[in-house]
């Protein structure tokens, strides 16, 4: 990690890259979506593209995501490692979303344990 990269941004990026590695293509058949992650504390933007049985990670902002997740990087990291339940975290306002709630509900099934 370079001295110009905030630690939280690195945790967020690592979490999303781990999600792609844990992606279960059979669980996302027919899904074509961009999921934007706007991490706070520190601020950084990343997105996952799910399409044609693959999950890819990119840094930056996508112009037209289907779903945007706004979360502190450490909260999302805890969700992806199983330390924090995603549904409970959402219900207790630890993160919020904009866009397709149906996609959000399906997302949990797209990734194996300890994504």
Give a description of the structure.
With 115 residues, the chain is α+β, with helices and mostly antiparallel strands. It has a domain at 7-86: 2-Layer Sandwich (Nonspecific Lipid-transfer Protein, Chain A). The protein is 34% helix and 28% strand. The radius of gyration is 13 Å and the shape is globular.
What is the CATH-assigned architecture of the domain at 7-86? 2-Layer Sandwich
Summarize the helix and strand pattern as letters: HEEEEHHEH
Taking all Cα atoms into account, the compactness measure Rg is 13 Å
**Biggest sheet character:** 5 strands, mixed
Quick check: average pLDDT?
Answer: 90
- Shape, per Cα inertia axes: globular
Number of helices: 4
Structural class estimated from helices and strands: alpha+beta
Cα distance spanning the termini: 21 Å
Write out the strand line-up for the largest beta sheet, numbering strands in chain order: 3-2-1-4-5
The first-level CATH class name of the domain at 7-86: Alpha Beta
CATH topology of the domain at 7-86: Nonspecific Lipid-transfer Protein, Chain A
Identify the CATH homologous superfamily of the domain at 7-86: SCP2 sterol-binding domain
Low-confidence stretches: 1-6
Strand percentage lies at 25-35%
**Overall helicity:** 25-40%
Count all strands and give the number. Answer: 5
């Amino acid at each position: 990690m370079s001295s110009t990269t905030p630690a939280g941004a690195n945790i967020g990026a690592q979490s999303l890259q781990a999600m792609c590695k844990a992606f279960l293509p059979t669980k996302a058949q027919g899904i074509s979506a961009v999921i934007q992650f706007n991490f706070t504390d520190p601020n950084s933007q990343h997105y996952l593209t799910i399409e044609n049985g693959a999950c890819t990670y990119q840094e930056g902002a996508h112009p037209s995501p289907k779903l945007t997740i706004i979360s502190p990087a450490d909260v999302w990291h805890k969700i992806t490692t199983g330390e924090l339940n995603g549904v409970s975290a959402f219900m207790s306002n630890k993160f919020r979303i904009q866009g397709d709630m149906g996609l959000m509900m399906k997302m949990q099934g797209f990734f194996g344990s300890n994504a």
